[in-house]
Hints:
The complex is a heterodimer of chains A (245) and B (451).
Chain A: H1 11-29, H2 32-51, H3 59-93, H4 102-107, H5 113-118, H6 123-141, H7 144-147, H8 162-235, H9 238-244
Helix pairs in contact in A: 1-2, 1-3, 2-3, 2-6, 3-8, 6-8
Chain B: E1 42-46, H1 57-71, E2 75-81, E3 86-90, E4 93-98, H2 112-135, E5 139-143, H3 150-155, E6 160-163, H4 168-174, H5 180-195, E7 198-201, H6 204-214, E8 222-224, E9 251-256, H7 265-278, E10 282-287, H8 297-301, H9 305-312, E11 320-324, H10 328-337, E12 340-342, H11 352-359, E13 363-367, H12 372-375, E14 382-385, H13 390-401, H14 404-421, H15 424-450
Parallel strand pairs in B: 1-2, 1-5, 2-4, 5-6, 6-7, 7-8, 9-10, 9-12, 10-11, 12-13, 13-14
Antiparallel strand pairs in B: 3-4
Helix pairs in contact in B: 1-15, 2-5, 7-13
Amino acid sequence: MMSQSASSLSVQxxxxxxxxxxxxxxxxxxxxxxxxxSLRRLQDDARRELLDGGAQxxxxxxxxxxxxxxDMLLTLVGELATxxxxxxxxxxLSPGAPAPAVDAVAAEAGAGLAAEAxxxxxxxxxxxxxxxxxxxxxxxxxxxxxxxxxxxxTPTTTPLVGPLLGKLRAAVHSLVVxxxxxxxxxxxxxxxxxxGALQQQLLARxxxxxxxxxxxxxxxxxxxxxxxxxxxxAGHTPGAEATSK
Amino acid sequence: xxxxxxxxxERRLQPLLDAxxxxxxxxxxxAATLPEPDAxxxxxxxxQAYPPDKFDGVGRSTQLLARGLAELGHDVxxxxxxxxxxSSRRDGVQVHEIxxxxxxxxxxxxxxxxxxxxxxxxxxxxxxxxxxHRHGIQLVDSPLWQVEGLxxxxxxxxxxxxxPVTAIRQIAELQNNHDPDRLLLGDLEQALLERAAFLAANSxxxxxxxxxxxxxxxxxxxxxLPYGIAPAPEDAxxxxxxxxxxxxASLEVLFLGRLEKRKGILDLFAAIPLVLAQAPQxxxxxxxADNSLADGxxxxxxxTYPTWFARRYPAAAPSVRxxxxxxxxxxxxxxxxxxxFVAPSLYESFGLIYLEAMNYGKAVIGCLxxxxxxxxxxxxxxxxxxxxxxxxxxxxILRLVRSPQLLHDMGQAGRRRLLNTFTYLHMAHAFADVxxxxxxxxxxxxxxxxx
Lengths: 245, 451
C-alpha cells in the first residue's frame, strides 16, 4: 500500500512507480485508443487493489493512486492536443484551404457523436469511434457513485460488548468513508473536466479530418474539371485539326 | 458530458504489467540477434561518472572496459551524465552524455538520493531506447552502483548485465547508517541484482558479500571477471633502486583514496606516528578528497580529517602532506614517484588502486579484506594486514621501509602479475564472452517462448 510518508515508501512502491512511468511513456508513444485501454486497466487494478481487498482503507493511498491516474490523463490530453494542432497546421498549410475553426467546431459538439462515428467507413474513422466508446466507458467508470464508498461494518458475535464494539467500528469507518467520499466527489469533478477535454479534442480532430476530406474531394473535382478542359482544348488545337484533315 | 447510456467496464483482473507493451518480460524484448561466434557485439555500458570529466572506481573501470571492447572490434556505446545532451567519440567509443532532470517520481522528493537515482535511471532507459532503435544495441551493461540500469531492466527492452561493486547496504552497515533514503537505495540494488540477466562480479569477495548482504539465490548466473587496467609503458615504470638507496634517505609513502573511515584513513593516521618513531625518514603523501562531511566524521568531531590529524598528532604533521583530489596526470606522477603504496581500506570490492600502483612497479600494503587478496599476492607483490589494526599496519610499513630489496622485488613481481592477468584487454575478452553467453541464453528463451 502506498503512503505519503517518505520513510514508509518501499521498494515495491518504487518498482510500481517505474511501471507507471513506463506506462506514461507508452501513452505518449503508442496509439491513443490503446492508451485509453491501458489507462482503464490501470484504474481497474487500482480499484481492485485499494477498494475490493477488504483490508482497512487508506484514503491517502486512494488519493495517491488517483493523482497518478490524473497525471496520465493529463499526458493523454496533452498528446491529443499536440496531434490536433498538427492536423490543424497541416490543413492551414494546404493551398486554398479555409482556416479551420476548430474551437467553434468543438463547442458545437453534440451528444450523438458515438452513434454518428459508427457510420463512418474508413479505418481512421472506425478507430475514432472506438475511442469515443472507450472514453464514454472511462467516464462511466469514474462516475461519483462508482467512486463513493458505502459504510460496511461486519456484525460482531462477541457477547455483551459486541454491540458496543460494532458502534465503535461504525463510528471509525464512517469517518474514513466521509473523508474518502469527499475526495471522491472532488475527483469526480476533475474527471468531468478531463472527460470533457478529451471529448472536445476528439471532436475537433474528427472535424479537422472531415474538413480535410472535403478539401481533398474539392481538389479532386477541380482536377477532373481541369483534365477534361485540357482534353477538350487538345481536341481543338490548329495542329490537331490539320493532322486530322 | 452527455452521451450514450452509462456502461460499467468489465473487470480486468490481470496484473498491471499485462497492459504495457514496453514492460513485458523476455518474450516482449526487442530483437536480440544471436551473434556469430566472432561477430562484433553492439553493447551499451552505463557509468554516471566517466573520465575525463568525472571519475571514480566505476568510471575508470567502465572506461577501460569500453576501450578494451572497442579495440577488440565491438561497437561500444557509453551513457554517462553530462551538463548538456551530446555525443562524442573517445578511444573508439561513442560516449553519450545525458542530463539529469528531476521531472519524474515526484513523491520521492523527500528521499533525494532515491529521487535522483530513479530519475537518472529513467533518463538512461530513454537513451538506451534511442540507441537500440538507431544502432541496434543488443545488450546493456550496468554497474550496480546507483542502479543505473534498473528502469531499462524493468522495461524488458534489453538484457542487462550487472557489474556489482561494493553494495550500498554494505556501506550503510559499515557506517552504521540507517537513513531511509540509503536503505531504500539498498533495496533497489537488491531488485536490480535479482532481475539481472547476469552478474559480472569483480572478485570472489563481491559474490560472497552480495550473497550475505542481499541473500541472493544461488540460481542467479554469475562469474568473477577481474578488472584490468592499461599497462604503463616500460619506460614509465620506476622500480625501487635498492643499490643506490642511501640508508637515511627519505622514503615516500603514498596513500590514495577518499578520506573516510571505510578507506582506513584513521588507521593510517594512527600508524604514522608509530612509523615515524622508528623511521623518521619516512614521508607520507595523502591524496584524495576529504569525505568527512558525507561519512559523518564532521558531525562527530566538528572538523575535517586533515585538521583532525594535525591536532591529534602535531609532532607527525610536518612529515605528512595532504593533496586533496588530484587529476589523472598528477595521480600517475604520484604513483611513479612514490616508494611504497599504502591503502588500508576496511573493504574494497576489488582494489583498483593496488593494480595502479603495481603498474608502476611499486610494492603495496593493503588489508585482508574484500577483493584485495585477489589482487595483491600477499608476501609476493605486497603485504596484507588485518583491517583496523594500526600497529600491524605500522609494522608492515616499517618492514618494507627497512628493506630496499624487498621494495624492489615486490614492485617487480607486482608489475609482472599485472601484465599476466590484469590488463584491460584481459577484462574485455572476459566480458565479451559473458555478453555472448547472455545473448545466446536470451535467444534460447525466446525460442522456447515462441515454441
